Each structure stands twice: as structure tokens, then as C-alpha cells.
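Handout, section 4.2: multi-component inputs.
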Amino acid sequence: MSALSHFLESEGLATAGISLVREHTERMEPPRSLWVPFELGRPFGAPDDAAFQHRVLAATLALFEAGPRPVLVDFPDDAPVKALAVETGGWACPIAFPPPPIDPNDLGAAVAAEIGQLAPWYEESRRALGRTSVSGQAFSVEEAAAHATLFLDTPPETGMAAVVRLKGALEDLKAFYAEAAAARPGASSADMADWLWQETALGRLIFTLSKTLATHEDEALRYMAARSLVPRAQAEKAKATAAP
Amino acid sequence: MVRLTDMMEDDRNHLLSRPCPRFDGDPWVEGPPLAERRIAIVTTAGLQVRSDAAFDFRTAEYRVIPGSIEGKDLVMSHTSVNFDRTGFQSDTNVVFPIDRLRELESDGSIGSLANYHYAFNGAYMEPAGYEDKAREVAALLKGDNVDAVLMVPV
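Output:
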């Protein structure tokens, strides 16, 4: 982001941006930045809170009239937290899934079963939101799960094209799960991530893909397995849970 | 969050190890008051119109987002798995504040909104790798008479 700001400004365009990682902004010194103490993925702080988004936006736009260079201002407040789950004794997904399959070959069937159970809740969320972030570009969610499962044994394709298609399939599956689970309100982003990665067959499928593809002969698949399948924080949690 | 001290160790170490070059020159462009400015969004959130191709994360390519876009038509194909997507799933404005900007345009706080906005996938490439495409986008923005660019990471 800081690099893009530098290049655009050097072409004669005034820029003002949000900084999510203050240490990066301090080092790169883009022209105008507002550091915000928000979670990665939420540069305007809080979904469904127009008033708070307006505060962040106003603070960023005000930088166009600030100086001298480099401008780095701290936004004063944390994002408001939805306290529902804490106050009501914790969030739980609307679906209780069966115990995890022991045989990794059952993962595809387990994910397919989860999709079937989650489908009505996904449709409910989709109606309520009036949209979905599931792209549905290459696959239906059922096809996406079947496609991903193929990579547990013999990947049907390799190289960058395979990575883009598999990543797209997995992102759609995760979005489907998250939107279905959001039918029961009150989950924080951490609740949702812990549920998806530590409690579902989809999480186990992606963890298994990450391990399986880490040693594949294809460089693109190896790179994806190492860097772009499992969030670092969830890998760390799984390691801690597995430790004696 | 995000303060690095609040993050798990692997995430913190990863972010601190990212290359952060200081580029030559100190460009600084001034302009008219906000109420007279024409504003575009440039995001690194890997956003695209639903019908557009997903990002190939080993390039610095960008996607064009029409000014008339509705949130329901935006999807995200960003490469990284290390940030929250549930906020975006609930409300696209938490990443791409187009509705908030339209409100500011309506009440006269800003001059106007661009005909097009632009999205990059800001994860894989080293910062310098974006230069050519950034300069390409700069020409497009100037052709749209934009004089203020709101830069939004994810």
C-alpha cells in the first residue's frame, strides 16, 4: 500500500491512506497515513456500523489538508466490539457436526455432509444480507469440495493455474461456511475462525492439504501449501492443542 | 488489534520480516479543499467484480471497479489467508467504503467520485514490483480527473 501511494503521488496524484501495520508505514513513509488499531481485514473498523466507518473515513480524508510530509496520524479508538457472544455465554454454530472422521479418506464425505447441513443456514444468511461473497465462478460449493479433495491423493493439475483454481475453490468453501454460521449472530471474527479451522471437516481438509502438498514435486503447489492455505495463527493454535 | 504486541508470534514475526523499502524522493501533491476534490479508491484487498477473473497472485495486475458498483457485486480473491474476511462478508464498506463516500458526495463534503476505482492483490509481490502497474493506474486516474486517491489496505 505504501509503495502504491509513493508511485501515485510521484505521478502527480495526492494520496491519503489507511495504515494497518504502523511499523511498515514508519519505515516506508508514504505521504499521508492514518494508522488504525483494527484487525487485519477491517480497515474501516466495524461492519454494519456506518457511523464508525464515517469517523474513520473523515479522519483519513482530513489528511489531504494536513502536512508537512510524511503525515502519520493515529486514530484514537479501537473498533466497537459486538458483545453479544460474551454476554450470552458464548457463540455456537447453528449446526452440531458429528465427530471427526479418523480416516483422512473420509474427509471428502465429511465435508460434503457439512455442506448439506449448512446449506439452509447459508440460504438464510444470503436472504438476510441480500448478497453472498461466494464467487461461484468455477465451481458450485459441492464441486469445490470435490475438487479440493482430489488434491489429497493425486492432484488433477499442477502449476499456477491449479493454484488459482484450488485457492478459489477453498475461498468459496470458507465463505459459504462463514456465511452459513453467521445465521446465528454474535460470533466474533475469532470465534468464527476457531470454529472453521479447529472444529469442521473443512478445516481438517485444508490442514491435511497443507501437509500433503508441502512435499509435492510441483513448486507452485508446494509454495501454496507452505504460505497460502492455513492461517499462521490457526496453525499455531493447532500445534499448541496437539502438544502434550 | 492490530497492534503487533497483540498478535500471535508467527504473525508478528512474519509482518516484521516483510520488506519495507524507502523509495527515493519525497513526492507531495497538494490540491483544492475536499469539497472540490474528485476521489477514487485504490485498494489492495484483491477485490473484483464478480464476473471478473480471480487474481493471479504472482503478478501485480489490477482490476477495474466501476463507480456504479454495488456491494453485492464485489467479491474478494486476495491470496493471503491471514486476515479476517467475515467483516467483508457482512458489509463490503468495512473494506471498500463506497456507500460512505456516496453519502459524502451527496451532502457536499467531497466534490465527486471517480468513474472507476482500482484493486490490487497486495500480498505476494515485493513493493517495487507494483511500480509499472501503479503508474499505469495513475494515468487512468488522471484521465478521470481524479485529484485525491483514498488508499485502502486489507
